[in-house]
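Recap from last week: sequence in, structure out.
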Amino acid sequence: MAKRWGLVPRNPVEDVTKFREDNSRDRVLFPDEEKAVLEEAPDFVRPIVTFAVNTGMRLGEIVNLKWTDVGRKDGRAVLGGWIRVGAESKGHRARHVPINQAVKAVLDAQKRVATEDGFVPHVFVNVRFKKHYEPSSVYNSFKAAAERARVEGVCFHTLRHTAVSRMVAAGVPDRIIMRIVGHTTRTW
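Predicted structure tokens:
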């Protein structure tokens, strides 16, 4: 106020570094909530939700996932194989996400979509438009499904927290979880 009133030439604390606000969320989905959301979700969102809960991958990483980054043999996902999340991810470092039974089932259920130019390289493809899903359409559809299911305080990123929480509960070592989800510090 003294500066506004012209009593001092400058604010004496303007160069003080402000504390970073902790705006992180740590909400996870319980199995019954996951089931309720899946029941309300559109058909195209269900496999993406299941995939997210089992991999801990970010929404952008999922919708941009290409078949060349999936460990496959004879056109089928390899149980115990890996999904390569490349340098285009948030951390700009390639990492490998394991393929469990649920992830394998989702991948094997996805059909390759052909265009005049060949096959669409992405795993999760909108068959009508013959291109990968936009993150906003998946995000908004998930959010609407959660609202219809009356599951509060969740967004798509909650699925990532859920995956990490389940890995911790299963006894996966922290350093392995960090490698899978691409964290450089234990921030979950």
